[in-house]
User: What shape does this take?
Amino acid sequence: MSRRLRFNIFRYNPQDPHSTPHTDVFVLEETDSMTLFIALTQIREEKDPSLQFDFCCRAGICGSCAMVINGRPGLACKTLTRDLPDEITLMPLPVFKLIGDLSVDTGTWFRATNEKIGSWIHTRKTLDPDAREERMDNALAEEIYELERCVECGCCVAACGTANMREDFLGAVTVNRIARFMLDPRDERADKDYFEVIGTDEGIFGCMGLLGCEDVCPKELPLQDQLGIIRRKMGWRAVKNLFGLK
Amino acid sequence: MDIEVTDILCIGAGLAGERVAVEAAAAGHQAICLSIVPPRRSHSSAAQGGMQASLGNSVMGEGDNPDVHFEDTVKGSDWGCDQEVARLFAETAPKAVREMAFWGIPWNRVVPGKSTYFKGGEKYEKVEAKEKEGLITARSFGGTAKWRTCYTSDGTGHTLLYTMDNKVVELGVKVHDRMEAVSLIHDGRTCMGVIARCLSTGRLKAYLAKATLIATGGYGRIYRETTNAVINEGGGAIIALDTGVVPIGNPEAIQFHPTGIVPTHILVTEGCRGDGGTLLDVNEHRFMNEYEPEKAELASRDVVSRWMTHHIRKGLGVKSDYGDHLWLDIRHLGEKHIKTKLREVDEICHNFLGIDPLTQLIPVRPAQHYTMAGVRTDKDGAAYGLTGLFCAGEAACWDLHGFNRLGGNSLAETVVAGRIVGKKIAEFVNGHDVQFDTGLIRANLKREQERMDRLAGCKDGQENVYEVRNAMQEELMERVGIFRDHDGLQKAVENLQGIYGRAQKVGLRSNGLGANPELSVALKINGMVRLALCVAYGALMRTESRGCHARLDYEARNDRDWLNRTLATWKEGDDLPTLNYEPASQVEELPPGSRGYGATQVISRDET
Assistant: This one.
């Protein structure tokens, strides 16, 4: 027999002068292979068409639908209701600005962060598109791709103790992005260029080591490893500087 | 009035829109992209398998060049494409793939020496050359003579989009996300920009530009079963059609992808079959090699989707609560391959099906996937009907796909067309001044505000927008799908006309305040049903079978009467589109012939 699921959903529409933050309760019959995408769409189309949330690819690829699901940040589209208890509480991600109900503004946050860290290949070379491409070892390409799989969903930021306390913390997503460019020989930035951006309390030294980021990453990226690697590299850099080595 | 002025306005910040903006910005122009989602969430990110470019680095791509790519593309299109565009595309693709490498794509590379690969479940060996080590490699895709599809695992769209958006950030191109264009500002001759609705606040804003680009992707969401993201509702096509002067090219050309998973229709890449995966029936028996001895699972998508549907109709599908399906088998590819080259597929299988593709079969069935149809443009990307309006990517009918797109040619189109159209727009803007009529802008803003108020106040009726949308999706799914015939299409047109009447009586059940999602759909529902009518009516009138358009009552490809392109416009007040036709291609480098796969009935041009 199918379960009756009780959804407690955070509601607030800042554009509606009569709206105040509160929780609405919706009850649904669970169906086979039901995801939170299916459930929330059903609630919107059949029960309350004003309910705001963000889905796009609904396949765990685009990172749109991160929210706090029974206290834990995750992608709603790939969360199966059968993995949850009868009572499901949904809240918008913290840290990011609320747009309404379960919808938050991740776009502004990530654009600002990407501008801040210079999230692109820095090179003085110019391209000749008719010339053969530069070679790269396939193993290295696969290693870069591994870090490139981040979908900027914001789960790691929402789950981060430091990011919840200080607005300027860059978060695991940014450390991972820097690690991706450090691996890439096409990027001509030197270690010290990266450390200027990330070797501060806003970056790697703000981390309290709670590991929430890695626990919730829907792409299972090795976020803590990247933090460790960068911290170690930076330690070596400091020692070398001390002895005047290159 | 809230107004912003720019040189170039890109509606859409997926790969095509951003690539145009990058080209424009590099030429010194100011560009703004509008996007209904943050740019990195665009549906380009969901493209998995790769992009075609004839680099010929892999041993399996030896001897490849733009000529071969061109031929494959024209055959794939079933001679429905514009051959001049297909040629331009094939010549530019290698440059585009190298440019993306320069900007940061971690393309998979050639690994020298012996390795094994699978074709149709059989194991073969290949030896990659030492001197090609580290160059961009490629995998096999359907309808191609060579291994030509460059890839980063099965996250190619994702890496391309992130790298492109990095470029956008680097160049300081502004992206206004959560901003949806609801109408074009034009005077019947010149396009001056758009009226947009902010999806954070619900407020309207006018964007004025010397050149406006539509790059909003396809309109798969007019179908019930589609691999497309929920945002692919055809916003760009709708506002173009609304002008009454800009035509949709070949609206009836809708692609079904062979491997949507059942029941959610999420895509698993063609790379699965390209890398040697097979299709099995209820008896776990392989069948594509029997229908297509030469290409088997790697015939073009229209052909494979048809044979799969045919096989299911023969009673050889697997029964399930969600209708009959077939199996995709990639078990033999092995753990290492699946965990490195098919990572997203592996995740999708675990997350949405609860199965392990290493040991279990994947339930699949054809699902709507791509619109070859789109805003008709010339080879420079300039839209027919309005000066200053351009279009690129899936939103456009440029038209290199004709009646069937090859896998790997859509990602390639976004960056190739973006590059070419971006240059042309930059040139256009250089020598072009436009006068903005403030009266016209005010009238446009007022009209859109009134439209929103009427919907919120239920002034035209109380039809439920979701019920109207579901009825439209159902109609297309049932009667305008993979196999079509006169009676079904006639009925679809009649029913859709009824649904169109209901769409005009939609009223909101919620208050419509702020970023109200019900209002977002309600603003588009008329346009979506119009698009549906263009598809159904275009299909009804086209009395032949070509590429994805398969008529059971006209099984032959008819080059005598139908070697042409449908152009659908919509006159205000009508309840059907007006259809005109133009020759498929002015330039004919490759005369119509056999594709080498699929059914072969052809009525040649000389037949009387």
In short: DSSP finds 15 helices and 24 strands in chain B. The first strand of chain B starts at residue 3 and ends at 11. Chain B has a mean pLDDT of 97. Chain B touches chain A through 74 residues (CB under 8 Å).
